[in-house]
Amino acid sequence: MSRPRASLANLDLNLVVFLRELLRERNVTRAAERIGVTQPAASAALLRLRRHFSDELLVRNGAQFVLSPLAEQLAGQVEPVCEGLEALFVTTGDFRADDSRREFTLLMPDYVVCALGETLSRTMHRAAPGTRLHVKLVNEALPADPLDTLRVIDGILSAPTQALRTAGIRDLELFRDRWVCVLDRDNPAADGFGLADLEALPWVVPHHPDGGYPASYPLTPLLARLSRRPHVAVRVDSYRATPYFVAGTDRVAVMQRRLAATFADRPDLRIVPCPGDPPEIVECLWWHQRLDDDPAHRWLRGVIRQAARDAPEIPTPDHGAITAASHTPR
Predict the structure, then answer these.
(1) How does DSSP classify residue 141?
(2) Looking at the structure, do residues 165 and 290 belong to the same domain, yes or no?
(3) Are residues 103 and 170 in the same domain?
(4) What distance in Å separates the CA atoms of residue 223 and residue 215, rounded to the nearest whole number?
(5) Is residue 315 situated within a structural domain?
(6) 118-127 and 295-310 are packed helices; what angle lies between their axes, rounded to 10 degrees?
(7) Considering Cα of 211, then 212, then 217, then 223, what sign does the dihedral take?
(8) Dihedrals φ, ψ of 178, to 5°?
(9) Is residue 206 in a domain?
(10) How far is CA 17 from CA 14, 20, 42, 152, 225, in A?
């Protein structure tokens, strides 16, 4: 016998919001922080949900909690419900940036934070000082299912990948960059650096899978130009961290010009053009098509595009021949 349908008049819709965050975070404290309630209020909400569903929802497994089978089922149901409610109430009026308290969530690698983060922060603060920004850093790799991820966040700032170019995901080109190589100043290979040197030297590589190859997607076109796989001496979960493992060694790091330029005032490092004529780096904003007509998201897209246009080119002292990257938002 099916369970009787509950009347909306008898439901506390705040519990739906808490349920979504609880199932996302799998942690009562973090769920409370996400929706801005106290720990006692979150514990009381969890108790009410457990009574309503006659299920524990969160089950302790060693030092952490996991979702119960029913909670796994609810996780797939609560997201479209919340999306529908958000879409319903968004249509009641235009977004007003000057008095909005909305939080926007963006996922991006640390390189994009370096290239765009400060300008985006300043632009948003000037236009909408009450809005909040939650920046999530890419952890090793982009989500395996970006469409599913974009159902619950406002956007991903990333280079194009096959997974991102899928039905239901929209994109906007923001800026372009190019690859350079960073070496120790005393590395004899720095003068006349070529593909043979790139193949021979040990590499410092960000977001390199354990035992996997090739490395992170943006480097794939360059790696395809090499006659052999480079030796990866250091794996690190950050583009910004790579130069620290080059200084004082014979290693090389391949990184984005905009990011490398922030280290150009270090006399112990040398920045040289990347050999092999690798293609330009293209960075885009990606979002779920359901947000196409959301006034707040349209505003956000405009702010991000403006920030990409306004982001300053980072000058590079002559520690090695390096040319300015093109900067052409679509």
Answers:
(1) B
(2) yes
(3) yes
(4) 9
(5) no
(6) 130
(7) positive
(8) -140, 165
(9) yes
(10) 5, 5, 11, 12, 49
pLDDT averages per 10-residue partition of the chain, 330 residues? 54 82 87 80 90 90 86 83 65 73 92 93 93 87 86 92 90 94 94 92 82 56 80 88 94 92 89 89 94 91 93 55 36
End residue of a domain, out of 38, 62, 90: 90
* Residue whose structure tokens are 């790139």: 198
Q: What residues have CB less than 8 Å from 219, skipping those under 6 apart?
A: 205, 254
Backbone angles phi, psi at 323, to 5 degrees: -105, 155
CATH number assigned to the domain comprising residue 37: 1.10.10.10
Instruction: Report pTM.
Output: 0.67
Length of the chain counted residue by residue: 330
- Round to whole Å and give the CA distance between 224 and 322: 23
Same domain, 216 and 295: no
26: containing domain: 8-90
